[in-house]
Design brief:
Order of helices and strands: HHHHHHHHHHHHH
Structural class: mainly alpha
Number of helices: 13
Distance between the termini: 20 Å
Oligomer: single chain
Radius of gyration: 18 Å
Shape: globular
Number of domains: 1
Length: 289
């Protein structure tokens, strides 16, 4: 059930991120979101258990994971979404996430390569290319679009590396506390970056963003940051990064279905083929031995 929620919520966040970053400097938009999410999670851990596990032995790793999963991922991604569409961003992210997770997990000896992993990754990537490739790559890709695509790639690699580094911490500390510390520290890093380097960041602290932007921010705070991101870390702890990373084969399907229901977008036979391949890749990755 957590995996299903993760797929749905993260399939709906790209449009919210694009809408928000078009109005508010990304460092402020995501910095406030992640900082508040971290404080809420840490408060919940304290209320539930009456204590926190001391984070000091893991302080260096926590800082590194926060810089990778929050600062690096969010700054690269949201600034890049100013130059590429949310659909193209989702395509690049979804195609690269499972491969980069497996790559970093193999490098850090958390996973071993097998035919099952290879088949799952192959099915998923081919399905994404069939579903999104023709539309995403149609038209002329100018310099700014190429720059945005590179930024999405760097953000995805940053998040994947941080995910693999985060897994060992959850053997010594509750997953909710790990998520809270990463979110809080990463959010503060984003705020500092925004205030130091982004135009209009200080003015954005007045919070007069408009109704639509606030709706996007609240969706990203509640279901995404507090819900799906915490579930992601729990699944990484219990399933490993390979099986958890197969969410990237299903989340794009959510975007297609939402387009059908909300915007009356057409579904062509080639789209159905692509979605079937992605579901097949996820099924292979999730199937028990």
């Amino acid at each position: 059930m957590m995996f299903a929620v993760l797929c749905f919520v993260w399939g709906s966040t790209w449009i919210a991120m694009k809408l928000g970053s078009a109005v508010v400097p990304p460092g402020i938009f995501v910095g406030l979101r992640w900082s508040i999410a971290g404080l809420i999670l840490l408060a919940w851990v304290w209320l539930r258990h009456g204590r926190w596990v001391s984070p000091w032995p893991l302080a260096g790793r926590i800082a590194a994971v926060a810089a990778l999963m929050i600062l690096g991922n969010q700054m690269f991604t949201l600034h890049s979404l100013r130059y590429v569409g949310s659909g193209m961003g989702s395509v690049i992210n979804s195609s690269l996430t499972p491969l980069s997770l497996v790559g970093f997990a193999l490098l850090m000896r958390q996973e071993r390569m097998s035919w099952r992993i290879g088949l799952a990754m192959g099915l998923g990537v081919v399905g994404i290319l069939v579903l999104f490739g023709p539309a995403a790559m149609a038209g002329r890709m100018d310099g700014t679009v190429l720059l945005g695509a590179v930024g999405i790639i760097l953000g995805t690699l940053s998040y994947s590396a941080g995910s693999v580094l985060a897994r060992p911490m959850m053997a010594a500390m509750p997953a909710l506390q790990v998520a809270g510390l990463i979110n809080l520290l990463g959010g503060l890093m984003c705020l500092a970056f925004g205030l130091a380097f982004e135009d209009g960041a200080w003015e954005a602290l007045r919070l007069d963003w408009g109704f639509g932007t606030w709706v996007a921010w609240l969706w990203l705070l509640g279901p995404a940051a507090l819900g799906a991101s915490t579930m992601y870390l729990v699944l990484v702890r219990d399933w490993g990064v390979t099986k958890t990373g197969s969410y990237a084969f299903i989340s794009p399907i959510v975007a297609v279905v939402l387009g059908l229901l909300i915007n009356n977008e057409a579904l062509h036979p080639i789209d159905a083929i692509g979605m079937t391949l992605m579901l097949g890749g996820a099924a292979v990755a999730l199937r028990r031995q």
